[in-house]
């Protein structure tokens, strides 16, 4: 288990403070890709996103805020048992529980999308009225993938069953089984396929004042903007629209109590385009969600 009270020895995301007690937000990595259905490698995402963050400025002209204006702590990567999704879920949950007990906001870097499930489960214990905003190419609403219930194709189904489907808001979805699409419509998920920014802006007033967890799969972007991911899906949004979506959430009345960005697989993008855009989105999340 990564300790909060010792310095991380690897790459650190720009602007991180070494003072945990002052930090309002804890950034952490979840280097897991044990259940991916196509291309592995997202376990290397958290470290690479941190490494390339040095190319960015700490100042966001979009939000007129600088990382020096906030206090966040990069706790490094959670050591996870290789190839064991059930144990990894348990370890991630224990880590997020510690963050929540310290009354700090967890923001995670994946890793495959299954890592979102234990994080949301722990945040929900502290915020029973929690809603989830999910930006993704894939519905992730399967009960299992080829018989395996612990899969990166299942986290939103688990979350919908935990929170109630009416508390799940999905945007940008353009891939899934017929059963997944039917489940979303039947159970009352706020389901917005293909598009993100406009339906998100229309939905945000419904969440005014509520605690919200935001999960972003980098493959919500078109592969032209983010080729370095395990399951690229054509027809996605631009990086400009993704940034604008994060800003819309940040400037709304919702209270973001946790977030993550997942599925960066750097091996498939030697240009580093994907981890760089992920790092910029994380900078905007850190600045926009830490108030």
From TrEMBL:
Positions contributing to Mn(2+) binding: 113, 136, 138, 140, 217, 219
Classify the source by domain of life.
Bacteria
- InterPro entries the record matches: Agmatinase-rel, Ureohydrolase, Ureohydrolase_dom_sf, Ureohydrolase_Mn_BS
Q: Which GO terms describe its biological process?
A: putrescine biosynthetic process from arginine, via agmatine
Which keywords accompany this UniProt record?
A: Hydrolase, Manganese, Metal-binding
User: CDD domains in the record, alphabetically?
Assistant: Agmatinase-like_2 (cd11593)
Question: Which GO MF term does the entry hold, naming one?
Answer: agmatinase activity
Q: How is the cofactor bound?
A: Binds 2 manganese ions per subunit.
**Which prosthetic group or cofactor does it need?**
Mn(2+)
Signal peptide location: none
Q: Which Pfam families match?
A: Arginase
Any keyword Manganese? yes
> What PANTHER family would the database entry show?
ARGINASE/AGMATINASE, GUANIDINO ACID HYDROLASE, MITOCHONDRIAL
Family recorded in the similarity comment: Belongs to the arginase family. Agmatinase subfamily.
Q: What is this protein called?
A: Agmatinase
């Amino acid at each position: 288990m990564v300790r909060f009270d010792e310095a991380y020895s690897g790459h650190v995301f720009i602007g991180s403070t070494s003072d945990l007690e002052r930090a309002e937000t804890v950034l952490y990595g979840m280097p897991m890709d044990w259940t991916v259905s196509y291309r592995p490698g997202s376990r290397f995402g958290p470290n690479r996103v941190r490494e390339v963050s040095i190319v960015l400025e700490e100042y966001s002209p979009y939000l007129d805020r600088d990382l020096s204006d906030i206090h966040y702590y990069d706790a490094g990567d959670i050591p996870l048992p290789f190839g064991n999704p059930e144990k990894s879920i348990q370890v991630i949950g224990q880590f997020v529980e510690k963050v929540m007990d310290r009354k700090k906001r967890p923001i995670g870097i994946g890793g495959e999308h299954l890592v979102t499930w234990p994080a949301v489960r722990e945040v929900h214990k502290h915020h029973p009225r929690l809603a989830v905003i999910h930006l993704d190419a894939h519905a992730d609403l399967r009960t299992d993938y080829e018989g395996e219930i612990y899969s990166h194709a299942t986290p939103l189904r688990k979350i919908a069953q935990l929170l109630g489907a009416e508390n799940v808001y999905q945007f940008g979805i353009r891939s899934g089984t017929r059963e997944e699409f039917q489940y979303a419509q039947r159970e009352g998920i706020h389901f917005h396929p293909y598009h993100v920014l406009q339906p998100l802006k229309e939905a945000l007033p419904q969440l005014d004042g509520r605690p919200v967890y935001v999960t972003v799969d980098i493959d919500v972007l078109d592969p032209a903007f983010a080729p370095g991911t395990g399951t690229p899906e054509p027809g996605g949004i631009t990086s400009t629209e993704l940034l604008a979506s994060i800003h819309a959430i940040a400037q709304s009345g919702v209270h973001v109590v946790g977030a993550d960005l997942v599925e960066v697989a750097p091996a498939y993008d030697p240009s580093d385009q994907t981890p760089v855009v992920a790092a910029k989105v994380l900078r905007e999340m850190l600045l926009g969600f830490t108030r």
